[in-house]
Each structure stands twice: as structure tokens, then as C-alpha cells.
Design goal:
This protein is an all-alpha fold and about 180 residues long. It has nine helices and no strands. The relative contact order is 0.18. It comes from Anaerotalea alkaliphila.
């Protein structure tokens, strides 16, 4: 159960957005419902979500999925782990790779990660840590593996998932049931 309940009356434009989100996900989207207490927060969060890349030329869906999951695990957001982990199998993410995202294995010890995935995950870890770090070596590696647009897509994905994870943790929203095994 979340820290606060959703409002009894949700403004019609927000109800439409929630209806669409729930239709797309097939789940009750409690974060959107709770954000209805403050329509500006609900609308701005919806716009942010609409702008995130789930596919981009030159970046695999798998890489973006790994980045989203790395943030979700680091911030310890069970709702985010549940939602972002729903397509592991479809993206070919292995148990060994999940263990690396959880910090139980080093990224370098997992041969199935590509070089690009390793550097993107390292940068994700640096930007998600507190305080956020911009290691010059990692940035140079990112620039070797990704062009400017891809760099922006990866960094904005990291920032977007951090936003949602911290918002959802702050509201105390539990997992929505995308995966039966979404334990931390």
C-alpha cells in the first residue's frame, strides 16, 4: 500500500491519460493516480515518460532495458524493478546478467555483456550514485562507443528512470505485478 491514497476525484484530462497508461501496460498505474493530487506534477511526469526512448537507431532495446534495470536496482525501487524487468526473457537478459546488475558479479565477469553494454552500465552506475560522478575515463569510453545523439538518449534514460524511481519510492508505491519474481 502506498503512503497516501489516490484522490477520490481525478480531473477528466488526467483520467484519460491514466486510462491510456493502464490500457498500454495492462496494470493499474498507481503512481499516475496518486500524482493526480497535483495535476502539474501528473502532466509533467506524463510528458517526461512520453519522451523516453525505448528504441533508438544504433542502440538496442536490450541496452536501454539494461540501463533502466541498473537504475531501478541501484535505487532499490521494487515497482521499477517489477516494471522494467517485465521483458528480461524477450531481450535475452540472463540470470548471470541480472546478478551483475544487482552487484553480485562484476560487469567484466559476464561475457554476454557487449563492450557497449558494459560502458553504458558503468556510466549508469556513476550517474545514479550519490553524489553523481562523471568519471573522465568512462565518459571517454562512452564517446568512443556512442555518437552524440546516442549519448543523450542513454543519459536521458538514466535521468528519467532515476526521477521515476525516486518519486515512486517517495510515494511508497508497491510493485504492480508485472513479474511474479520482482524481489530486491
Amino acid at each position: 500500500m502506498s503512503h497516501i491514497r489516490e484522490p477520490r476525484r481525478i480531473p477528466p484530462p488526467l483520467r484519460l491519460g491514466i486510462f491510456i497508461a493502464e490500457k498500454v501496460t495492462g496494470k493499474r498505474m498507481e503512481p499516475a493516480r496518486i500524482l493526480s493530487w497535483h495535476p502539474k506534477a501528473a502532466v509533467s511526469s506524463g510528458v517526461l515518460e512520453a519522451l523516453v526512448s525505448h528504441k533508438e537507431k544504433g542502440i538496442s532495446k536490450r541496452l536501454l532495458q539494461l540501463v533502466r534495470m541498473q537504475v531501478s536496482v541501484m535505487v532499490n525501487c521494487s515497482f521499477c524493478i517489477d516494471m522494467n524487468g517485465k521483458e528480461f526473457e524477450k531481450q535475452g537478459i540472463t540470470t548471470e546478467e541480472v546478478e551483475a546488475l544487482q552487484g553480485r558479479r562484476k560487469l567484466e565477469e559476464v561475457p554476454s555483456f557487449s563492450r557497449r553494454e558494459r560502458v553504458a552500465l558503468q556510466y549508469t552506475r556513476e550517474l545514479t550514485s550519490t553524489p553523481a560522478v562523471g568519471n573522465g575515463t568512462t565518459i571517454r569510453r562512452m564517446k568512443r562507443h556512442f555518437d552524440e545523439k546516442q549519448f543523450v538518449v542513454i543519459v536521458s534514460t538514466i535521468a528519467q528512470v532515476n526521477y521515476w524511481a525516486r518519486l515512486i519510492k517517495g510515494l511508497g508505491v508497491p510493485p504492480a505485478g508485472f513479474r511474479p519474481d520482482c524481489s530486491l
